[in-house]
């Protein structure tokens, strides 16, 4: 339960980097029963800025989204914009990808912006190292992330959203567990003197250069060590098989731009594997994209029509494809929740993977930025 609605887990969260899930209206997200969406602090900080976001009453009101909203802290941009930033003890100096101007984000700034956004769930500012990285780099990232996490906890106002810590440590399970224990032990007083701790814990620093099987092994070891009384969040990892592995390990929350990015590029997820809709074999394929799917796209349009839209770069192709892919992800999580309730998740996962492996394209990876 959150102030903005109930979140049933495990859940996939559509990504709306700059305050919009690309090509989809908020009402479409409501119709497909999305429970929570994401906004990105770094991008919203640069444009439109915290002042305007406060003026309009926060992002949820501005974009007419009634449900919970999670904001990334800007920490992933420490990784993805590595050529445009400089890390110091105080924070990160960024060169804007928009116009080259210089901006400084401290942990306190990150929290200030997330509060202006009006996030239901905020994330601490962290350092996300690439993989592989030497042990010294991983240790430095963990230590810096810890110091910034404490500052974020101190900066949060009592009336603002929940705050999640982010566990780093690369592919070293021992370092990950050490960092988790350190974050769990943090206690700081708020402005009223009440003791503050974190409201949830996330695994960051995955899908940043490592092999999928390496990631899966570490998640399987670290996720069960995360406190079961708090939400467990795997950040930015979104292949369908990764979601299944994460749920099996005990992860509650997932996000990734994969369903919408792949949709815009003509890669569509189905219950029988991936469909690359631009391929010529779909020219006269007059059946629904996924006969087992009940989304608006599959109930009303054929593969041949979707291919026609994509081949002509029609905006509707991106709209229908994004609608379908997000519906697929959300439905997958609903099925996972149902299977867990009856003790049948292992069988459900096995069946899903067997179906997907008929077309290995569904297991492909893609970058995380939208």
Q: How would you describe this structure to a colleague?
A:
The chain is of the alpha/beta class and 370 residues long. It has two domains: 246 residues, Queuine tRNA-ribosyltransferase-like (TIM Barrel, Alpha-Beta Barrel); 102 residues, no CATH class. It contains 15 helices and 15 strands. The strands form four sheets. An eight-stranded parallel β-sheet has the order 1-13-12-11-8-7-3-2. A three-stranded antiparallel β-sheet has the order 4-5-6. Strands 9-10 form a two-stranded antiparallel sheet. Helix 7 links the parallel strand 7 and strand 8. The longest helix has 27 residues. The radius of gyration is 20 Å and the shape is globular.
């Amino acid at each position: 339960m959150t102030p903005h609605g109930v979140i049933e887990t495990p859940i996939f969260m559509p990504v709306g980097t700059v305050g919009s899930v690309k090509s989809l209206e908020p009402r479409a997200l409501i119709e497909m029963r999305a429970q929570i969406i994401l906004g990105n602090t770094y991008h919203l900080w640069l444009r439109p800025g915290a002042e305007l976001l406060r003026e309009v009453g926060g992002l949820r009101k501005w974009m007419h989204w009634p449900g919970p909203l999670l904001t990334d802290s800007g920490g992933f941009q420490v990784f993805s914009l590595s050529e445009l930033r400089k890390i110091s003890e105080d924070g990160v100096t960024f060169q804007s990808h928009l116009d080259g101007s210089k901006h400084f984000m401290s942990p306190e700034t990150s929290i200030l912006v997330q509060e202006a956004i009006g996030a239901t769930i905020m994330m601490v500012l962290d350092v996300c190292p690439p993989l592989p990285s030497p042990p010294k780099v991983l240790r430095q990232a963990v230590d810096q992330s810890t110091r910034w996490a404490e500052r974020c906890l101190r900066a949060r106002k009592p009336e603002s959203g929940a705050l999640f810590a982010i566990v780093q440590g690369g592919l070293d399970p021992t370092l990950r567990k050490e960092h988790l224990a350190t974050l769990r032990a943090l206690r700081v007083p708020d402005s009223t003197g009440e003791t503050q701790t974190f409201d949830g814990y996330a695994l960051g620093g995955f899908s940043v250069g490592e092999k999928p099987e390496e990631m899966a092994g570490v998640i399987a070891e670290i996720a069960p060590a995360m406190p079961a009384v708090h939400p467990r969040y795997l950040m930015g990892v979104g292949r369908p098989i990764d979601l299944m592995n994460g749920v099996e390990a005990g992860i509650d929350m997932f996000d990734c731009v994969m369903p919408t990015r792949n949709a815009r590029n003509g890669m569509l997820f189905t219950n029988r594997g991936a469909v690359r809709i631009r391929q010529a074999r779909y020219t006269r394929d007059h059946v629904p994209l996924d006969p087992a799917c009940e989304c608006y796209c599959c109930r009303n349009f054929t593969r041949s029509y979707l291919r026609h839209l994509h081949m002509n770069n029609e905006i509707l192709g991106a709209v229908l494809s994004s609608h379908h892919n997000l519906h697929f992800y959300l439905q997958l999580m609903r099925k996972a929740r149902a299977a867990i309730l009856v003790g049948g998740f292992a069988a459900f996962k096995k069946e899903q993977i067997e179906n997907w492996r008929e077309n290995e394209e569904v297991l492909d990876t893609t970058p995380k930025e939208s």
